[in-house]
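Service request form, structural biology core

Requester: graduate student, group of Dr. S.
Request type: structure prediction, single chain
Budget code: on file
Notes: please return the result as C-alpha cells.

Sequence provided:
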Amino acid sequence: MGLYEDIEAYKPANRQEEYDRAVMLQYLAQHTDCLLRQNRVAHFSASAWTVNRTRTKTLMVYHNLYDSWSWTGGHADGEADLRAVALRELREETGVQNARLVSGEIFSLETLTVDGHNKKGEYVPSHLHLNVTYLAEADETEPLVVCESENQAVKWWSFEDALKVPRESWMIEHIYKKLIDKCRQMPAIEKAQKKLQADR
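Core staff response, request fulfilled:
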C-alpha cells in the first residue's frame, strides 16, 4: 500500500489521532509537495518510538532544536516510504545500526507544531509536521553515538523517566504518554493474537 492507503487503514487510538488522520489524508490529496520541506505550511515527517526487547525502556536523544529529550525522527524529503525514513533517522541520530520495526504498520499519528528557527544560517518559518510514527526495537547494549549536528546526548530511559526528562510538556501529555500506554497494552494484544492463531 501507499502512504495514503496506510494512513487511511490506520485505526485512530483517540480523538487527537482521529482529527490528525483526517488532516493528513486531506493534505495528501490536495498537496503534491507535502513530502517536501519546500512546502512551508506543512510536510510529512516520520519518527521511531524505539524500545528495548523487554519493552521497559525507550531510546531518546537530547535534541538541539527543541532543547529537550525527545524521540528520533525527521523529514520525509520526498521519500514516500516513511518506514525507511524512521529507521534512517534512528540510525543517524543514535548510532544504532541493528534496530528493526516491530511491525510495518503505523504505530501512531500526530500533527506537530514547529516554531520558526534558524538552521544553517537560513530562517525556517513556523510550520506543521504531519508525523507518522513506527514502533522500533533495538538492543540496549548496542553502542550509542551522538549526532552533534542534531543532538547533544543519546540515552535509554525507563518509561517512567521518559515522562519526566523532556522539557516539552505538550509532548509528554499528548504524545509520549500515549506511546507508552500503547506499548504497555501490546503484550496482552500479542498474547491474544497468538491464542487466536493456535485455536485455528
